[in-house]
Amino acid sequence: MILSALDISIIAAYLLAIVALGLYISKAASKNVQSYFLGGNKLKWQLLGLSNASGMFDISGTMWMVYLLFIYGLKSVYIPWLWPSFNQIFLMVFLSIWLRRSGVMTGAEWIRFRFGEGKGATLSHFVVVLFALLSVLGFLAYGFIGIGKFAAAFLPWELSVDPRTNEIYYGLIMTVLTSLYVIKGGMVSVVFTEVLQFVIMTIACIAIGIVAMMKVSPELLARATPDGWDSMAFGWKLDLDWSSLLAQANERIISDGWSLFSVFIMLVLFKGILQSMAGPAPNFDMQRVLSARTPSEAAKMSGFVSLVLLVPRYMMITGLAVLALVYFMPQLSAMGPDVDFEQILPFTLANFIPSGLLGLIIAGLLATFMSTFAATTNAAPAYVVNDIYRQYINPNASAKTYVRMSYLISVVFIVLGTAIGLFIPSLNAIVMWLVSALYGGYTASNLLKWYWWRFNGMAYFAGMSAGILAAIPMMFTDVSPLYSFPFMFAACLVTCIVVSFITAPDDIEVVKNFYLKTRPWGFWGPIIAAVQKDDPSICPNQEFKRDALNVLIGIVWHTSLTAAPIFLVIQHWGGLTIATAVAIISSILLKYMWWDTLSDEPHEQKISSQPSMFSPAQQGK
């Protein structure tokens, strides 16, 4: 791509500014591990929300959604439920509050809070650390491959005559630049630089959406798309016929395996709801929740992510898709069976974005890599230093030692992730395995840990191990992780339940402490009875019905926020009016039924802060 001097200057200024900002504010992170990993729990929820949204805004994921909208039209708003994209709704309604009440630093440390210090807890602790580090390495490799391909396509300098080597060089350069401030600054640098990156990305997204609205009229778009493309409604089958427009699109729908769209949606909802109820995986999303100042702010942060992320991101996605539908169709058709939908992004930018704005958009897209890479990198030392080195090797070291160890671990994982990226040719292969197979095996154990009192550490370890072992062979097969999920989940669930009953329950005092601090709803009858013997004022969580209703409203709200910017860019004013009305009504409902009910403490502690005469503290007097 040919860039003007103005575009190159903007990109260079962005890279210098982001590294300088990260290094400038890194002093705040060097005090202790709490400051390094969680920002000292002093960061405002608005900043954490913008940071979390920025970390979710990756290049490859955005391009995947451009492809989905191009092929599936408005029905594509449901497909990201595969991840599931609506897990933020479950977090905002109740899970972020439960998680933040624990007061721990990492997901692995949370396991000890839940299961105690026995053999089962130790094994569970190790398997969660293993899972987290596998995820970190996978996503670092994924980020390295993605940024190398992106930078080589968009930046004007040929660093090597060999295209693959050129991608590697660019990947190394961008990795080093991002590593400078992530390693030194920890969570504080990550959050503040991601806020700046998010502002740049938002400007880029809106600009692309506006360009598309100016260049593509509804009439032009209608001639370039099949009947039903602009409708969110669907029947038993997808019923989008691309035969007369782009035959390869029909072939892609068949290869995706989503022709029976109702079956696909049922499987996606089944998988998505279960994975959402299991809570966040031990990655940057969980670290943001644990970094919040209070439980209620953690919930607000999770809700804020959807509000600020969906509209600008889908303006970009829609802008890229509709420009390609109208102007790039001949080139896609000429590619034959090897059509490459990833060429949509460079084609659109090269042909429709003016100088100056092009530099800003490329800087924004570079920011999507840097923010995701930074957030992922920050998760690695949290697990190695806090959950291994501090726990088992050097528990009495100084704060400076732990911070320096964090620097070292960050470097090691960046090098390992980059090395893995050098040998993996396909982004899709590693992402599908990580997100669908590995995370699919994570679901059963992490679902039961919240909602069933009898679930113990040995069962958690057995269920997680079964999930990881089941996921590994799927890397070498053509089996769809989505269609295999019910069988993987059932196998892990049976393993968890059987092992729970054939092994001794965890120390009841540990489980009581977990319940008193977290106060989840679910199957906690014997524990509720035990804590009420000590303190009859303890009330069980009676908020399941309200939480379930808020989740339903929240998913409708989330979907309307996804659909509204699409309708805006394609200038479908009727659809925009309906989506906006739904978003406003659901926002009002959530204001009264969710926001106004948020609490840092369990119900009876809101009523009175005075200790009960039956509390353990009083009984000891």
From TrEMBL:
Signal peptide: none
GO molecular function, one term: proline:sodium symporter activity
Location (main, coarse): membrane
Organism: Paraglaciecola chathamensis
Membrane topology recorded in Swiss-Prot or TrEMBL: Multi-pass membrane protein
Compartments reported by the entry: Cell membrane
One Pfam family here: SSF
Transmembrane segments: 6-26, 47-72, 78-99, 120-147, 167-183, 195-214, 258-281, 302-329, 349-369, 405-424, 430-451, 458-476, 482-504, 548-570, 576-594
GO cellular component: plasma membrane
Name of the molecule in the record: Sodium:solute symporter
